[in-house]
Write a structure and sequence with these properties.
Elements lengths: L5 H12 L4 E6 L6 H9 L4 E5 L5 H17 L12 H11 L5 E6 L1 H7 L3 H11 L6 E7 L2 H9 L11 E4 L17 H11 L3 H5 L7 H9 L9 H10 L4 H11 L5 H8 L3 H13 L3 E5 L11 E5 L2 H9 L4 H5 L4 H33 L9 E6 L4 E8 L4 E7 L8 H15 L6 E7 L5 H6 L5 E4 L1 H6 L2
Parallel strand pairs: 1-4, 1-5, 2-3, 3-4, 10-11, 11-12
Antiparallel strand pairs: 6-7, 8-9, 9-10
Length: about 475
């Protein structure tokens, strides 16, 4: 089942239609749907789709050789067929693509590099000599972002500037979820996004015919569930070693520690070793390091570490602390009941992230009448603003507050937001100031401020209407 990704399919289609030789680099986190996207897009096109695995150089070369021979001869290649080298294999591709468009997909390209570190250099040579003069549409895809960066995207990499289109495939957004859960109401979709996030694999691993809590019990809290061991499996794949210290770090961050010293203390690790692991987790795309959005850009301002993936956050909060019991089929009902009671607190920080993304979309759609240079949040010692979007060149700023409670948002929330916004401005006059409120329900605050210019109100239904 393939859903959504219409934008990405369109991007690939445009590159393909141009007819020129391409090296497309499609990268992104594991489970984000790179292989599924490429399978869907390449359907019906002349294509050699090679899915690499962890194996030795000779085995991979033989498998790739047989894939080429099978395509060229329209029949299965002999089991012992292999080209003598990668260079000869790439030359064979050049011959096949000399007069016609040919898609060649090397999925999990980092495994090929792992087996033969010289492969990027060999590919660079063949590209310079032959492939760039053909109609080949070569796609290099990979989940291990550090390898893709080092071997393809880094300025010192052999394939740097040979690739014609690097593209990071990112997780789906909240607005994409109705296709996966067509029976869910808007608030249910927000709650589901707060648990599962936007990784397509997570979304198709649960049952859209039942409610969120039932899916949590069946697929996340049950040892036979498809997502019970997912986080451990991903970390083992990415880190290739002992992951317990990394799990401790992620659990500390999921529990509310965001500064390096606090993270190290809660994880029971030395700050120096924590720094190295934090850097690795940022490089893998599991963590992000956020700095407050200031009126005057300040790169030296200390920042905070946050989990990028809502599901990683949820898993570390609820599965990891109870893992031993859950693994033997115990405490599922108890933990599920705790999750049910805590659901507003689980959703709240993700609703803030949804709000930050949505002001970008609203700006692009001219609902908010200016563009942003930077969008994020702001905090000081005793105050925080959930959403800050700023255009410093035009001296325009938007302050936003996101609340996920059953009670309608009150006027006092807006008053506090205006006060914190004034603190952000620091007495600097001449700014065009706007305000955005995100809530499940609005009471008097919408009636009193809703008619004023520069005030915007967004409910879950509003966020889901814009793709």
């Amino acid at each position: 089942m393939f859903l959504n990704r219409t934008r990405e399919l369109g991007y690939l289609g445009e590159r393909y239609a141009a007819g020129r030789a391409e090296i497309v680099v499609l990268y992104g986190r594991r489970r984000v749907g790179k292989s599924a996207l490429l399978f869907e897009w390449s359907e019906g096109k002349p294509c050699i789709f090679f899915f690499a695995r962890r194996a030795d150089k000779a085995t991979l070369l033989g498998e790739f050789s047989r894939a080429i021979r099978t395509f060229s001869s329209n029949g299965p290649a002999p089991d012992d067929f292999t080209y003598p080298s990668w260079g000869v294999a790439f030359s064979a591709l050049a011959e096949l693509a000399a007069e016609r468009r040919l898609v060649v997909i090397l999925d999990e390209f980092p495994y090929l590099v792992e087996a033969d570190p010289e492969l990027p250099t060999l590919l660079q040579r063949e590209w310079d000599l032959r492939l760039q003069h053909t109609q080949v549409f070569l796609v290099l895809s990979g989940s291990i972002q550090s390898v893709v960066q080092q071997q393809v995207l880094d300025p010192t990499a052999p394939l740097y500037r040979r690739h014609t289109w690097p593209f990071e495939l990112k997780p789906l957004t909240l607005a994409d979820l109705p296709a996966f859960f067509p029976r869910y109401a808007a608030e249910q979709l927000v709650e589901t996004f707060a648990v599962l996030g936007g990784m397509p694999y997570y979304l198709v691993s649960v049952d859209p015919q039942v409610g969120l809590l039932t899916n949590i019990k069946r697929h996340i809290l049950a040892p036979q569930g498809s997502l019970f061991a997912e986080v451990r499996l991903q970390l083992h794949e990415e880190l290739r070693g002992d992951i317990e210290d990394n799990l401790a770090i992620l659990r500390a961050i999921a529990g509310g520690a965001h500064r390096r010293a606090d993270i190290a203390r809660l994880a029971g690790l030395a700050v120096r070793s924590t720094d190295h692991r934090l850097a690795t987790l940022v490089e893998l795309g599991i963590l992000e390091y956020r700095r407050a959005v200031e009126r005057i850009r300040n790169a030296d301002r200390w920042g905070a570490y946050h989990l990028r993936d809502p599901f990683f956050r949820f898993w570390h909060q609820w599965v990891l602390p109870n893992e031993d019991y859950l693994a033997i089929g115990r405490r599922q009902d108890e933990v599920a009941d705790q999750i049910r009671q805590a659901l507003p607190r689980i959703v709240a920080p993700i609703w803030e992230e949804v709000a930050r993304h949505h002001v970008l979309v609203a700006s692009a759609d001219r609902v908010i009448p200016f563009h942003f240079e930077e969008i994020g949040s702001w905090w000081s010692g005793d105050a925080q603003i959930d959403v800050v979007g700023v255009n410093r060149a035009e001296r325009r700023v938007l302050f936003g507050e996101a609340k996920w409670t059953r009670e309608p948002m009150t006027e006092s929330v807006l008053e506090k937001l205006i006060d914190r916004g004034n603190r952000w401005l620091g007495g600097d006059t001449g700014w065009d100031v706007h305000y955005a409120l995100f809530a499940r329900e609005f009471g008097q605050v919408r009636e009193s401020a809703g008619q004023e210019p520069g005030f915007y109100f967004f409910k879950p239904e509003d966020v889901l209407q814009t793709r």
